[in-house]
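It would be a great kindness if you could assist me with a short task in structural biology. The matter concerns a single protein, recorded as an amino acid sequence and a row of backbone structure tokens. Could you please explain, in whatever detail you think fit, how the structure tokens follow from the sequence? Thank you for your consideration; the sequence and its tokens are set out here:
___
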Amino acid sequence: MSDAHPTLSAAQAQAGAALRAGAFEEAEAILSAAIANAPESPDLHLNLAAARRARGDVDGALGAVDAALRFAPRHFHALLMKASLIEAKGDRRSAGAAYGVAVSMAPPIEVLDPVTRRALERAQAASRRYQQELAEELGALPREWRGAGVGESPRVAAFLDRLTGRRGIYRQQPVLFDFPELPAIEFYDPELFPWIGALEAATPDIVREFLDVAQGAERTDLQEGFEPYVQYPDNVPLDQWAELNHSPQWSAFHLYKNGDAVAENVARCPQTVGALKAIEQPVMARRSPNAMYSLLKPRTRIPPHTGIANTRLVVHLPLVVPPGCGFRVGSETRSWTVGKAWVFDDTIEHEAWNNSNALRGVLIFDVWSPFLSEAERHCVTEVMNTLSRFSKPSFEL
């Protein structure tokens, strides 16, 4: 309590002394009198709950905790105590759900005292048991649904995984441009992109051109034609890229960069460029198309990040992928397979890693979201072109 309420501070101290002495009824009486003068103090209600619990009145303690939560619904200690009281009543499953709520409101573990840290770890374990038991209970449902044609639905599977905590919930977080009502899909169904089969069929030619331009990259800091993928001034608020900024560990061989063809690179990769020309990419002044070979050196990790705009998606065509490489978008993690393309929403948090001792190479380019109409694509293009005419940002995100 603050010094503005000296009588409440004294009541807290007196009640604490009574609790330590085992005089639980005395502590309850002191706290009840204090609450009559300050009914909106969640800490008084929480201390009253502790006194009632100490003398075995679990229901009374729950009532006091609920009173605290009416004034502070996100109070971590109150939520934690509520879960433990429900558990004390023998309702283990309801307690598991309540522990999950408490865990979601927990402060960073490093700021907790040892006792509270242990209580949090116990809550986390109880929440995991609850989620596992729920997953087992729901596990038979997809088999029952197969006759209805939904048992193998990826969306149903993701729904169940989210419900049981096996999959996190990630939203689109465009850095700059957020077009409303576009779906947040981590990896898109390739059936939405009729050109993907032809792109994959061109993989052998694309791999040959990539290997030609990347020859010797494992022996040099930066191969001819490549440049660091991340190139930001040191004075911009993008310090998450500090380790990779201006680094050859993650480099790019640009074929198209911010709307312009890189002539000398295009000339070296005619098969790759031919495959790209068969695919409609956004065309916007100083912004797109973009297409490149992405080269990730051994033992390098790209940190979690999000892209600029949800109006376009990103395509990966894996070219050289040693074991130990991976990619995560939102809650789904995949391994690349050479020649197997995927399309993902890069405004959902994503990251990549190369834990091997060899180079990883991927062709990367942008395409329109299939959920934009032709008219909407035209409008987005005009907006972006106007922005490019209006001003040039001091740095590109």
Q: What stands out?
A: The chain has two domains: 6-136, 190-390. DSSP finds 14 helices and eleven strands in the chain.
